[in-house]
Specification:
It contains 8 helices and 2 strands; from the N terminus they run ααααβαααβα. By secondary structure, the chain is mostly helical. The chain has 2 domains: 115 residues; 116 residues, no CATH class. It comes from Chryseobacterium phosphatilyticum.
Length: 243
């Protein structure tokens, strides 16, 4: 059995750790971009995921950016320890070895946690709940139960609104029922054909965002003001159809 002297052990450990951390984070980064490519394709198929996946992508990007900073620091400091190992600087070297080794371990743990977060099956639901609470906080600070709509009541209003919006669009576009566009495209085309004004466009985007979050989250109650907005839009579209 070959017993390495301390300096050789340090050379081996920290030169290898720099390579290992770099390779591991490179693998994680590749998985990150692969995952987000799948997210983009999922949004193309189901636009109700748009707000949720946008927030998830932002979360992952922020975590990956922090992780890359830690990775850079880990690699540079590991190589610095290898360099300083050739000098007799006393206990300072041992302290730096402990600190850099801790940083390397922390970087790896952060990478593992990022992977766990990326594959979390509850991520969509949890993000939807978080966004819906955030969306409602500015409008319903401590609202009573009587000022709430149930999930079912809100979705009934939205489905009626969506059907009317599609009927209004058909005044300009004769699309087949088999190839009906996603609702986000309906809103865009309503605006392009000047069938709705900017205020109505803003309301439609807002209520659609709430619908997306309600569909994918666990929230059972929605601010009643959102229902009022839906009713206003329903009346607007009915007026357009009567002309």
């Amino acid at each position: 059995m070959v017993i390495f002297e301390a300096p050789d052990n340090i050379y081996w450990a920290f030169s290898s750790s720099a390579q290992a951390v770099a390779a591991f984070i490179g693998f994680i980064s590749a998985g990150f971009f692969f995952s987000h490519d799948r997210i983009d394709r999922a949004v193309e198929r189901d636009d109700t995921l748009l707000e949720i996946y946008s927030d998830i992508k932002n979360q992952h990007f922020k975590e990956l950016r922090r992780l890359l900073w830690f990775t850079g620091a880990s690699i540079i400091l590991s190589l610095l320890v290898v360099f300083l190992n050739g000098f007799d600087i006393g206990y300072s070297l041992y302290i730096s070895e402990i600190l850099v080794a801790s940083l390397n371990a922390y970087t790896i743990v952060k990478a593992v946690l990022l992977v766990v977060d990326m594959i979390d099956p509850q991520k969509i639901e949890n993000t939807a709940n978080k966004l819906l609470i955030k969306e409602s906080s500015g409008e319903d600070a401590g609202g009573s139960a009587s000022s709430k709509l149930s999930r079912g009541e809100f979705l009934d209003k939205f489905f009626e609104l969506e059907e009317l919006a599609r009927e209004v669009l058909k005044l300009k576009v004769d699309y087949s029922a088999i190839f009906e566009p996603q609702f986000s495209n309906v809103i865009r085309e309503l605006s392009q054909f000047k069938l709705i004004n900017n205020q109505q466009l803003f309301k439609l985007n807002k209520i659609t965002k709430i619908r997306n979050l309600v569909v994918h989250g666990r929230i059972e109650k929605v601010d009643a003001q959102i229902g009022v907005v839906a009713d206003e839009l329903i009346q607007d579209f009915k007026s357009i159809l009567k002309k």
